[in-house]
Write a structure and sequence with these properties.
The protein is mostly helical. 64% of the residues lie in helices and 3% in strands.
Length: 337
C-alpha cells in the first residue's frame, strides 16, 4: 500500500515501537515463570495507581477535545472527547468495583469489575472504529456536541443501573479457581478484532494527508489490541499478565491524548508558524526595502534587502533597534515624528 510522503518516513519508528511491545508480550506469555497462576500480593494498590493514571488521561482527552476553540475544533477530537468521557467514568467504576477495594454500592467481586471493564473497552473500540472509517473533516458532531455528551451520560447511567442492581442479566465472566469463562475470552477477542479493524482504517487513511493525527491513532489502537490480548491470557486477576494489560492500556491512552492535543492545540500553532514563514519568504524576495516598527520607532522586522541597507547581514539583527543606531541616525527624530 502506497503511503503519503508525510507518513512514510515517520511510520518506521512507530512500527518499531509496536514490534518491541509485541515482543515483550510474547516473551512474557511464553515464559510461565513470569506469570504464576496464583498472582502476587499487593496488587490492589498497583491496580489502583494504573487505573487512576488511565482515568486522568481520559479526563485530559475529554478536556482537550471539548475545550478546543470552535474554529479549530474537529469531529475527530470531539468524538474522542465524548467517548473518553464515558471510558474514563467506566474505568472509575471498574476501579471502585475491584475486589479488595471497599464495597462500592454493592459487594465487590471480579465479575462486577470485569463488567465495567468490558463496557469501557467496547465503548473505546466502537468510538475509535467510527473515527477510523469516517472523514476527519465531518463537522456534524460539532453542531450537536451537547446532544452527544448527554447521550453518553444516559448510557453510563443505564450501564450502572444494570451493573449494580441486575447482575444476573450479565453473562458469567470469571469463575474463582478456574479463571476466565468462554464469554469473557471471546468478548476480548471481539474487542481485539474491532481495534485491528480500526488500525487498518487509520492505515488506509495514511494514503493521503489527513487533518487529524491518524498515525498517533494507529499506534493507539494497535497498543490497545496488544493490551486486550493480555486479558485473554491471565489466570488470576492479580497476575503479571493482568498488570501488563493495564500498563499497555495507559500507554495507548497517552497516544490518544497526544492525538487530541496535536489536533486541537498544537496543529493551529504549527499552521500559523508555517504561514508566517511563507509571508517572510515572500517579503524577503520582494525587490524593495520592507520594514515595520512600533510607535516608538523600534524595528519589529524587515526583509533581507533592508537589513543589508542598514549594514546588517541578518534581519534579526535589526529587530529591537531604532533609527539612531543605523547610518541614517541624523534623520531619527524626523522619522519618529
Amino acid at each position: 500500500m502506497q503511503l503519503h510522503d508525510s507518513y512514510r518516513k515517520s511510520l518506521k519508528p512507530v512500527l518499531m515501537t509496536l514490534l518491541v511491545l509485541a515482543v515483550i508480550e510474547l516473551i512474557v506469555w511464553l515464559t510461565p515463570a513470569l506469570h504464576p497462576s496464583e498472582g502476587f500480593s499487593g496488587y490492589v494498590p498497583i491496580h489502583t495507581i494504573l487505573e487512576t493514571a488511565a482515568i486522568i488521561v481520559s479526563a485530559m482527552v475529554f478536556a482537550a477535545g471539548w475545550s478546543v476553540p470552535k474554529e479549530n475544533s474537529s469531529s475527530s477530537s470531539l468524538l474522542l472527547a465524548i467517548v473518553f468521557f464515558g471510558v474514563g467514568m467506566l474505568d472509575l467504576l471498574h476501579m471502585l468495583s475491584y475486589e479488595g477495594m471497599p464495597d462500592f454500592i454493592t459487594p465487590n467481586n471480579p465479575e462486577k469489575a470485569i463488567y465495567f471493564w468490558l463496557l469501557a473497552r467496547v465503548l473505546s473500540a466502537i468510538g475509535l472504529l467510527m473515527l477510523a472509517w469516517s472523514p476527519c473533516g465531518n463537522n456534524l458532531l460539532i453542531r450537536r456536541r451537547w446532544f452527544g455528551l448527554v447521550a453518553m451520560f444516559v448510557l453510563l447511567v443505564a450501564a450502572s443501573v444494570i451493573g449494580f442492581n441486575y447482575p444476573d442479566l450479565i453473562p458469567r465472566t470469571f469463575v474463582p479457581g478456574r479463571g476466565l469463562t468462554g464469554f469473557k475470552v471471546w468478548m476480548e477477542y471481539f474487542i481485539i478484532a474491532l481495534f485491528i479493524a480500526s488500525a487498518f482504517g487509520f492505515l488506509m487513511k495514511m494514503r493521503s494527508h489527513q487533518p487529524c493525527d491518524v498515525q498517533g491513532l494507529f499506534v493507539a489502537v494497535s497498543v490497545m489490541a496488544l493490551s486486550e490480548l493480555f486479558f485473554t491470557l491471565y489466570a488470576s486477576v492479580t497476575d503479571i499478565l493482568n498488570l501488563l494489560g493495564h500498563v499497555y492500556k495507559v500507554i495507548a491512552y497517552g497516544f490518544i491524548y497526544k492525538s487530541v492535543f496535536l489536533n486541537g492545540f498544537r496543529q493551529p500553532y504549527l499552521e500559523l508558524n508555517s504561514s508566517r514563514n511563507l509571508l517572510q519568504m515572500v517579503i524577503d524576495h520582494l525587490p524593495l526595502r520592507v520594514f515595520w516598527k512600533d510607535r516608538e520607532s523600534r524595528y519589529l522586522g524587515c526583509n533581507v534587502i533592508f537589513a543589508n541597507y542598514a549594514g546588517e547581514a541578518d534581519p534579526k539583527n535589526v529587530v529591537g533597534k531604532n533609527d539612531k543606531q543605523f547610518p541614517w541616525h541624523e534623520q531619527a527624530d524626523l522619522y519618529l515624528r
